[in-house]
Amino acid sequence: xxxxxxxxxxxxxxxxxxxxxxxxxxxxxxxxxxxxxxxxxxxxxxxxxxxxxxxxxxxxxxxxxxxxxxxxx
Amino acid sequence: xxxxxxxxxxxxxxxxxxxxxxxxxxxxxxxxxxxxxxxxxxxxxxxxxxxxxxxxxxxxxxxxxxxxxxxxxxxxxxxxxxxxxxxxxxxxxxxxxxxxxxxxxxxxxxxxxxxxxxxxxxxxxxxxxxxxxxxxxxxxxxxxxxxxxxxxxxxxxxxxxxxxxxxxxxxxxxxxxxxxxxxxxxxxxxxxxxxxxxxxxxxxxxxxxxxxxxxxxxxxxxxxxxxxxxxxxxxxxxxxxxxxxxxxxxxxxxxxxxxxxxxxxxxxxxxxxxxxxx
Lengths: 73, 278
What we know:
Order of helices and strands of chain B: HEEHHHHHHH
Strand content of chain A: under 5%
Distance between the termini of chain A: 23 Å
Oligomer: heterodimer
Helix content of chain B: over 70%
Largest sheet of chain B: 2 strands, antiparallel
Strand content of chain B: under 5%
Number of strands of chain A: 0
Number of strands of chain B: 2
Radius of gyration of chain B: 23 Å
Helix content of chain A: over 70%
Structural class of chain A: mainly alpha
């Protein structure tokens, strides 16, 4: 069988596993904390967005890899 | 998110396949680079996407102007909707994050980013337009540069350049030995990764969403042709059409969500720059 295509989406897929789990943990923990202390919801949400932005960055770096002109073997 | 990745991967693989004779041709990124319509060769070149962008901005200006023209103390239904939207962007995003004083200062910027991104994202699902111009990297890039300048300006204005850099790089409570290492990492994450991720998050979500919708509707057309020719495989067209409709609803949600994320991250970055030490 011959598969034709770019291998970069695979790299992105692998990176997405990690940041997917990471974002899930962050949001889940935030929900847990807000359930315990609802009055902190605003500040926790801010922290959650910062965490998500940093975690997701790995995903976007993986996208960027596809555009780096590596030398051909 | 997983569906998006799946769609992006599938469309890349399908597009790489040789179409052959009468085979299925999937969507490709070329749809973001259509033919020039007007003013070819000048800096004001218009193609389909820039035209859609102009239409979206005109519609946005018109809606905001008409919605806030005759304000009454007892709001009509239209005015109530407008008040809800403006209150959500101004109070819900800017003032909630930045506090009363700084929130009022930066609310115009954050509301502009929110409504512009929302209007441009929504064109991705409107029938007849069907492409989000935020999928071209230029538009998110400009917005991210504006956000970048805004938070650096906010920090430098409040603390001066030296103390702003010290606040954001030289973190308190870190052991002195690894402080330089942390400073390098903080520099990367604050001044390089932030604008890049702001840009790519919006662009890639819109490109993937467009690919997903285009794949569903192209497949519907392909299978419907088979159905006309009398093939049993044509029955799949009903499934792909339903999927296309479902993903259109999902795309409406993503359009609003991405506009919200872009606006709130801008607000948070400004807030971090204004904080004494974080």
